[in-house]
Structures are given as C-alpha cells and as structure tokens.
Amino acid sequence: MRRLPAMFKYLGWFIKKEWHKYILIMVLSILFTYALTVPPKYIGLAVDAVTNNTLTRAKAFEYVGMILASSAAIYIFAVIKNYYTGQLSHRLYYQIRNRFLRNVFRQDGDFFEEYYTGDLISRATGDSDAIARVSTFIFFHLFDAVSALVITFIMLVRLDFKMTLLSILPLPIIFVVVLVLRPKIMRNWREVRREVSHLNNMVMESVTHVKLIRGFVKEGEDERKLAEKAEKVFATERQAVFMQAVFRPTFNMTTVISQGIALGYGAYLIMNQLGFSVGALVTFNLYLAMFSQPLFRLGNQITTLAQSTISFERVEEIIRHQPTIVDAADAAELEKIETIEFKDFSFRYPKDNFNTLEGINLRINSGETIGIVGKTGSGKTTLVRQLLRQFPISEGELEINGRDVSSYKKESIRRNIAYVPQEHRLFSRTVLENLLLGVGERTDLSVEEAVELADFKKDLDFLSDGLETIVGESGVTLSGGQKQRLSIARAYLKNADVLIMDDALSAVDGITEINILRNLVSLRKGKINIIVSHRLSVVEDADKIIVLDGGKILEAGKHAELMANRGWYHEQYLAQQMEADDEE
Q1: Domains of the chain, with CATH numbers?
Q2: Which of 140, 147, 246, 572 is 20 to 30 A away from residue 18, measured at CA?
Q3: What is the DSSP string of 460-496?
C-alpha cells in the first residue's frame, strides 16, 4: 500500500487533464447515494401509516411516487456515472499502453535480453488494464463506498444514536480480516503476475516455433511443459481465490450480528413505547444494510488496490526504464556515412565476464565491400551490430567520418544503415507490406525493381496472390531462401549508405547467389557493403576480407592474399570447394 500514493502521483498528468470528469463523477456518486436513501424512508413511513391505520389514498400515491421518482433518479445517475467512468478507464488504458510501448521502442539491445516478449505483453495488457481500472472504476467505487458510509451513518444517527452505535460495533471485524490477509494477498498477487508472464512467454514461443516442435516430434513434451506451467499458475491463483473466499462469510456473519442487535434493541424500544415505531425499525434496518454493504466493498477494494500496486510496479519499471545509450545534448545529425573505423575496439555483452570482441582495428571507406568470415561464434554478428548502436561501447573507439560514434544521434546513424539480419523478421502481412517497410526518404527504386535485383521476382508467380500474398506469422508460408531475398529487396529499397548482410545468402542456391551479388555490385557502387557469411564464395570478390577467431582479427586482406597466406581462410575455402564439387 506504500506504493499507492506513488501510483496516483504518477497518474497525476491524467487526473489533471480529466479533472472536470472526475469531479462530475464524484458529484453524481453523492447524488446517486443520497437517492438510494429515499426509498427506505418512505417504506418506513408507509409501514407506520398501515400500522397506525392512517394510510390514505393521497399518502399512498405520495409514497409510491417518491419511491418511483427516486428509482428513476438512481437509474439516470448510475447510467451517466458509468458512462463517464468507462470512458475514462478506456482512455487511461490506451494512454498507459501508448507510453509503455513508446518507451519499449526507445530501448537498446540489452533491454530485450533482460525482458522477454511474453513478459512485456503481460505487462502491456493485464497490468496496464489493472492500473486503468483501479484509477477509475475502483477509485470511484471506493468513493461510492465512503459516500454511502457517511450518508447512511447520518441517516442512522438521525433515527437513533444509541442503536446506531450498538449496531455498528461488530462491523470493524471486517477491517481486522482485511488487515490480516492483505500482506498475504499482495505476496500472492506478485507471484501470480510473475507466473502469468512466464506462461505467456512459453505459449508465444510454442506458437512461434510450432513447425520446429513438430519437426522434432516434441508436441507431447511441449504440451506437458505448458500444462505444468499452467497448473502452477492455477495453483498460485487458487490461493488468492481461497483468501478472497474468507471475506464474504465474514461480511455475512458480521451483517447478521449487526442486524440482530438492531432488531433486538428496536423491539425493546417498541415494546416499551420509548418513541420508536415499527416503520422506523424497518427503515433503520434498510439503512443498516446500506451501511454494511460499503464496508464489504471497501474490504474488496482495499485488496484490489493492494494488488494494483504490484501491477503498477511492473508497468512503471518499463515506462521509467532509460535506454543504455543516450544521445549527448550536442549530438549531431549524421547526414552521410563515408568512413567507418574501429580502433582497438573491444566489446562484451551486459552481464558477461569476458570480451566477445577483442582489439579490433578496421577501417572501411565509402565504395568498399567488406567480407567478414570466421568460425561459428567468432563474433561476426556482434561486430556488425556495433554499427547499429544497440549496445554501449566497452573499450576502444568506433568512429564514423573521423568522429566518435557517440557524437551523432543514434537514430540518424540507423537511418543511414540497411540491415539484413540472420533471423529474417517478417510481419504477418502481405509481401508488399513487408517490402514497403524499407521505403524511406532516399528510396530511388520501385518495389518491382528491388524485387528483381534481389532475384525474388521468379518466386512471385508461385505465390497465390503475388505481392498481395499474406506471408503468415514470421513468414511461415515462405521458404528460407524466399525470406532472405524478400529481406534483401527490402534493404535495397532503403538505399542506405551502408548495407549489412548478415549471412543473408545461406539459404539460396549458387545461381541465385551469383545473380544477387552481381546486382549488388552494380546497384551499390560507391557505397559501403558489409557481407557476413560462412560461405566464402559470397565474399570472394570483396575489396577486403577479415577472418575473425575468438573475437579477434586472425587474417585480413583480399581473396588472393588470404589464399597465399595458407591460413584458416585457405583451408576453409578449399574444403568448401571440394564439397561443392562432390555435390555436383
């Protein structure tokens, strides 16, 4: 509960913006509660009139008219109040999610290694919804409860002060139960949200990699793991249900005791003719029921408020998370990339104890094509990702156009780089929509030209709707080679100063590879091209080839120079040529 003021303080921007609606809803809540007290009053008067044999036609119409009028008022106040409360809740939910996602999009590579997709989705949906509901529906329900307690208490005291005090004596039992269970409920709810996040992530991975799971015939094992996690979530939530179940019996018991005291003492006053009537006793018990209900709701609402602080902590953690790489105040816009230089550059991933790259010295000039090769895990992808400014620099320098990379705005650097990653990211949309993602200010090719240069045109005839074919989630309807060529075409459309192809030709055949490389040379003349590959034939014609081993540059030079060195490159090239000959 200590976090509750912090939550409403954080949401102050929304409350200030919508303060007039908050005031309107609170006024309607007071009017709604007061209207609820009208029927008990006239029911009591009617009972007294019948008991005393003084009920006339005029009085009957008056009592019924007032009850009907108050019922109509109750309905109107409730409809308006619920409409504006729902409007506020949906608007706040949208704006929290908007802020959440905007900050997620600002983050760097280390953020996504710490927070998984399923966890982020859980926070953006379930936790954000909990905050929005608490700040609107629950807040106003709490205000309703307090208003009802105050107004009905005044009504009870006006009927009989002593009876009121005697009747409400047992009601604090409800608060005692709340205070005892609240810490346990909070601990349990924190565990519930954590386990739900884990389950969401597992489900997402299972759906995303369903073809892989089927390929290894692991459906049963995957189903078992999901069932175990779902059972754990169920068991955790069942504890919350059990604790919640304690509240209602406690409330019912306490209410019965209170009404029993009121009936007993009221009967005593009536039998001894101490100025209390049967109608007044009926009205008092109706008011007492109205007084007891908010106490129970108050208990539930306090529990919900306590749970919401856990959701707020989870959402606030993301919204307040600052990117690791922050542009300097005087950072400049990078208009064009002409040179890239690594100087004694070393890098290690966050939380690692060793360098992934060590002492890299490399200069790349405009118009050059650079090949990067090496064993699996040698640091090839890590090296090219440094240009995208996804991680802070550990040691050494990385310069663009002779200036330290930190002197430029990171977004302007990324605008000048087209990246084709190893894992080809496609959206579950049409081929055309995935291609248009690469269109920018510098685009000078049509979609058709980019498709042809990436040697993807021949595949369109085999797709059901050509460019309008839905590729499915992560491009599930396309082959590996088709995904690669679609990604290359998308990168061509960007027309950036630097093109990075990270093992982007691993799934294409030899003829297609030759076509793509030939087109690349003619299309990107005068620009920087960085090609990472395990197949040395892809980089054979590069202006410079570097061989990485254990994060260090083992060899560097043109193809002929590396072959003359008779090192790793020479051995690997001959081995791959022999494999190609055997396949033929």
Answers
A1: 4-319 (1.20.1560.10)
A2: 147
A3: HTTSTTGGG-B--GGGTTS-HHHHHHHHHHHHHHH--
